[in-house]
Amino acid sequence: MKTPERAKLAKLIKEKAKFQQTGKPRKEAEVCSKIGRHHIRNGQFQEAIEEYRYEMQLWIRQKDMMGEAMCHRSLGECYAELGYFPMALQHHDKYMAWAESTKNYAELQRALATLGRTFICKAASVDEKNSPEAKTSITKSEQALLRSMSVCDNYLKGVVSESELQQMKGRLFLNLGLVYMHQESFNKSVGSIEKAIRIAE
């Protein structure tokens, strides 16, 4: 880790200690989230996992279900990066269950998109490559991504900004392009990727 990054981390750790000592768990949890993101940016996923686990306990004690759900989202992403797909999917499911139960459609879109992306990575992993399991993962990815697209089209207009909505759809088209490539549906793959490019222009 470069010196400026170390300095940023040291500052965040100092902030966390201050809120811990003064009994401000919500502020402490917010700093934990920043520390977790710092670790992710530096590829330190195990350290990020430890931070998010600690943060989650703070939210649970505060009975803050949204804070807890966001930790599940972050933990799922970290485990997916490390290739621990069963753990990643467990956390994704908990995050998605919260989004569905609260009808938070912006977060439901993100949960489904993340789930779809994780299944793509799972299919491409050494354990599944060119196996029947890989086909199952790709099918599940397609289902999650198409459902995420449906949420975009039916629930998010006016809920998120138009530019954010287009970014969401652009990422979905790109990931669907990868799904169709895995399925050797090359025309569909090219079509999806072209849609992603048009949105990005």
TrEMBL record:
Native source organism of the sequence: Holothuria leucospilota
Subcellular location: Nucleus
Gene3D superfamilies for the chain: Tetratricopeptide repeat domain (1.25.40.10)
Name of the protein in its database record: Tonsoku-like protein
Record bears the keyword Nucleus: yes
GO terms of biological process kind: double-strand break repair via homologous recombination; replication fork processing
Entry-linked InterPro entries: MMS22L-TONSL_complex_comp (IPR052311), TPR-like_helical_dom_sf (IPR011990), TPR_rpt (IPR019734)
Recorded GO CC terms: nuclear replication fork
PANTHER family named in the record: TONSOKU-LIKE PROTEIN
Sorted UniProt keywords: Nucleus, Repeat
Primary residence: nucleus
Pfam families in alphabetical order: TPR_8 (PF13181)
